[in-house]
Inverse folding.
């Protein structure tokens, strides 16, 4: 075996072949493997067809040191992985006591009786080892066939994600001596992939080849990765990181999996500050992003979704004069919304948004994508108008994130205005 | 050749193997093929490695009537498709006059001079036919090899989408007589995949083989698909559909892409009813699901996120007596929350939730996953206690959906209590 193990992926599911589901699991697996210096060579995707799966698995095992199978572990008749793999490996399908135990506990915690469909999930190839599933009913498992380690994982993305540490551990035992590439991930908000790329090309013509640079555009965050293949290259990477920090400044949220809402909550907790939101076009999404974070109740008493003008007036005290004269999507309205939310919630710091999410409701003076934000405390409120003509759901996501980012910048004491999603002015000495 | 042509897909690109890019092109192609009664059998994804691509293309052509290659048509050195395919098919690589013409026009429209990198895109296998690219510089093309029609398409999703009509036309000429499979999709809420499967196994031992049954578990909805390969089988499918409607009853939300929030909004609009929510553990998610739907402002004036007990009292009027005696996660609290939200918003119908999302905050009497719901109008309020010990984000999603489902059932006049996510009692005459 050479230094780099040959790893293949097999994805199964009719929904993947029909186009009903976009396969995000492969990327999840590949990124996790990359963090360990491993890389899949090839992947094959097939529908729920037992004969085709059987032939494919046999061929894949002949041409791989490890085969990761994703999907087909569920309770239904179209979940075929265990059965087909047992046939390929010449193993009997037997009820696995530990898997049965997992299923019984899983059902009991939900007040369910274990039925035959669920019980099928404990029928596994004889002698297999389990990969624990901390979330779902389907256990994963590994089987050895023809010197190939076969690892079976569930298709539900949340369950796969929860199982990946166990999968990585098993691969680590099997392939201990591999070249380690080391990935440093930065999370950013408010700067686009092509803008970031262009800034780096313009200002770093001598970026070293030894420090790999790549981007992953998510909504709302953009991840930037710096990869080195040898620990000795750490000083070069540190120099690149300094350059990025100079170019991107406060757009950088943090390292690894840093999330905007988590950053805001941690900063508020450290400073003994409580938070609220007054939301029109985001419809509760700012509050929802905050409350996704465990422990958010420490700093978040609550929020107000005032979608109609009547509620902006009755709940938050926006004056009818303001609503009649300048309208709901205006600087004066969001200013009064945040004041009203601070008073009604007793929170120290708040943010308000009002905009035109579309597709309807736009006008010449306030086209779809226009949004006003206001944030601050009872002493000082700042405002900002953005124009992001995006598809409705993406607009809501990006605007809610911008609102959180305004809170983050205030909590960090950053006075410079944010330049969102357009060419950031590069500091003069760059 | 059998009735259904064997179509395979080959996706190329290092970014697909590293996980930096999620492959949405396969789903795009598959859905377009499905609209023509065509279905890819299998797909293979590979990095930008000339030798591996050459071997793969040769094998795929031996096992397919058509091979769709996506990616590798760009101007850079890692774009290998034309070169490798020419080698496999034993064709020379020549400058294609029509492709060169396209490139010259493409550059001229942008005020660019045709450079060597772009000119490389006109080097194609001799005798190939073009697939026009209405958007980008990379032309597509088709080659015949070993009785397999090879169709090469660009990896940029917008360019692929623009080229798909030409690809479909070419496939239509090649495979004119194909069987049309027809998919009927049902959306459901509140019943798990294994429960649905078990109910069907128990109550429909004579389910016909000619009506394909499959499931797609999303959060929060479960999709059930009934597939027939011949329009003459429609009566059999209708009988299966009747059975499912009998077994699943009000768990069925509707057909095709029916969404819970959209259903609630449509029903409320038809009945001239307005909606509100009072949210603790869902943190604004119910409001956010409603406001994701365009036109939700017709029926949704706003909502209240009362995360702290203080706000449950000051904003919604939950009495301190209640909060002190039975606590925030109780029937009496959610009852008062919905009453308070109805009064403060002026809405006709409301829903309130209060629960323990976890991971912290549970107790023996109210473990993590416990949630109380109340819904109704000022005349009648119903309540329900659920225990769903799920991961925090999934818990919030499922509870928000259950809240919307309670509103949907009320709007539909369904009096029977919902049986969520456990074995539903089957109607007596089943």
């Amino acid at each position: 075996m050479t230094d780099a193990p040959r790893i293949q992926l097999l994805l199964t599911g009719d929904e993947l072949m029909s186009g009903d589901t976009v396969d995000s699991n492969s990327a999840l697996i590949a990124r996790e493997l990359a963090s360990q210096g491993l890389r899949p060579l090839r992947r094959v995707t097939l529908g729920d067809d037992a004969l085709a799966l059987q032939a494919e698995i046999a061929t894949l095992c002949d041409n791989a040191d490890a085969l990761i199978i994703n999907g087909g572990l569920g309770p239904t008749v179209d979940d075929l992985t265990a059965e087909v793999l047992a046939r390929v490996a010449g193993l009997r399908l037997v009820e696995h006591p530990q898997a049965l135990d997992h299923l019984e506990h899983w059902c009991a915690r939900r007040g369910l009786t274990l039925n035959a469909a669920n019980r099928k999930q404990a029928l596994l190839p004889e002698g297999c080892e389990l990969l624990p599933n901390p979330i779902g009913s389907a256990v994963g498992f590994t089987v050895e066939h023809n010197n190939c380690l076969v690892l079976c994982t569930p298709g539900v993305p949340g369950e796969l994600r929860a199982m990946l540490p166990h999968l990585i551990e098993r691969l680590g035992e099997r392939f201990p001596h591999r070249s380690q590439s080391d990935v440093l991930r930065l999370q950013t908000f408010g700067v686009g992939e092509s803008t970031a790329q262009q800034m780096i090309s313009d200002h770093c013509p001598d970026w070293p080849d030894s420090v790999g640079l790549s981007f992953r555009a998510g909504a709302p965050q953009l991840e930037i990765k710096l990869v080195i293949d040898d620990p000795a290259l750490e000083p070069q990477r540190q120099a690149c990181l300094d350059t990025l920090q100079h170019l991107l400044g406060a757009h950088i949220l943090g390292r690894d999996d840093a999330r905007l809402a988590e950053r805001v909550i941690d900063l508020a907790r450290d400073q003994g500050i409580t938070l609220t939101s007054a939301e029109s076009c985001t419809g509760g999404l700012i509050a929802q992003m905050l409350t996704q974070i465990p422990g958010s109740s420490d700093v978040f008493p609550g929020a107000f979704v005032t979608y109609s003008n009547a509620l902006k007036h009755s709940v938050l005290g926006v004056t009818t004069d303001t609503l009649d004269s300048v309208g709901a999507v205006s600087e004066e309205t969001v200013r009064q919304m945040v004041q009203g939310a601070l008073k009604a919630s007793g929170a120290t710091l708040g943010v308000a948004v009002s905009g035109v999410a579309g597709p309807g409701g736009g006008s010449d003076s306030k086209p779809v994508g226009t949004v006003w934000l206001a944030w601050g405390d009872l002493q000082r409120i700042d405002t900002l108008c953005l124009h992001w003509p995006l598809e409705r759901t993406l607009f809501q996501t990006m605007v809610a994130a911008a609102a959180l980012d305004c809170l983050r910048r205030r909590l960090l004491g950053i006075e410079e205005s944010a330049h969102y999603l357009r060419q950031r002015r590069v500091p003069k000495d760059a």
